[in-house]
Design a protein that fits this description.
Oligomer: single chain
Low-confidence stretches: none
Distance between the termini: 41 Å
Mean pLDDT: 97
Radius of gyration: 22 Å
Length: about 300
Amino acid sequence: MKFREKLILANTEAAYGTPEALTGTHAILAKDVEINPLEGEELSRELDKPYLGADETILSGEHVSISFKVEMQASGAVAVAPGWGVLHRAAGFVETITALTNVVYDLAGSDYESATIHFYMGVNLHAMTGTRGSVKIIIEKGIPYFEYNFIGLHVDPSQVVTPTPDWSKFIKPFATGPGTTSGFTLNGYAANPYALTLDVGQSVKYIQTLQSETVDINDREASGSVRIEAPEIGTKDYFADIKNRVTGALSIQHGQTAGSICKIDCPKVQAKNPKYGDYEGNTSLDMDLVLIPTSAGNDEVKITLT
C-alpha cells in the first residue's frame, strides 16, 4: 500500500449508529487526513504474582478518531447542498435547503445528526458509525478550508476492493483575494483582513455505559482569531472596544457568482488580546475572538450558500 492511497466516504445516518451503505458517490475530497483507527482505555489487570514484571492490558471502549480538511467551496448551483454538507451535519449543524434560494447551515442545540464514515488506507477499510465532531473555518491567503475532527464507534477493519470515488459534488475552489473574497466587517468596521480562523468548538465525547456506547456533543465554546491590517485609532479604535467589552457582528463572503457564494455570519463577537504584528512589512492587528450566542441561542456561526 502507498501512504497517499487514501479515500474517505461519508453519509448521514437515518438512525444513530446504524451503518449506512456507502458507495463511490459518497466520496469526500479531502487532504491532510489523519486517523487513529483504534483508541480506548487500557485497563491493567494489576494481578498479584510471586515474581516481577508487567501485566497485560485489556482495551475498553474502542472507538476511532479522524481529522481532515475539505476545501470551502459551494456546490456550484444555487440551493444544492455541497459535498461537505453531510460533514457539517455530523459536526452539529442543521442543513436547510430553500428551493431556488439558498442552503443554510445553522448550529443545532439538540438532536444532533450522525454519520457513517469509511476510511480506506489502500484496500484496508476502517469504518466508523455514530460519528460526530466539530469543525474549524480557516480563511487565509490561498484556498480556504474546513478542518474537521470526528469521533466514531469502532467497527473491525477489513480488506475490501476500494470503490471508485465520484467527487462531482466538489467543484474546483476559488483562492482568496480581490474579486473572490469580500464583505469582511468586525464591530461595524470594514477592516482589511489577512487571515481568519473560526472554531465552532463542539465538545465531542465517546461515552460508554455498562451496556451502551455513543458519541455525543455535550457542550460548545466557539472561538477564533483574526489578523487585519491595523487601522489608525481615529478610524477604528479596537482597543477601546476590547477594554469596554464591546461586542459586535463579524461577516465575510467568499465567492461572488450565483452558486459559488459562501457567506459566514457571527452575530455577537468579542475581540480580545490585541497584538501588533508584521505582515509583509505592514502593521497587522491580531486579535483573539469569542463567538457568543445571542438571546436566540445556537447562532454563534451561520453559513449561507447562494
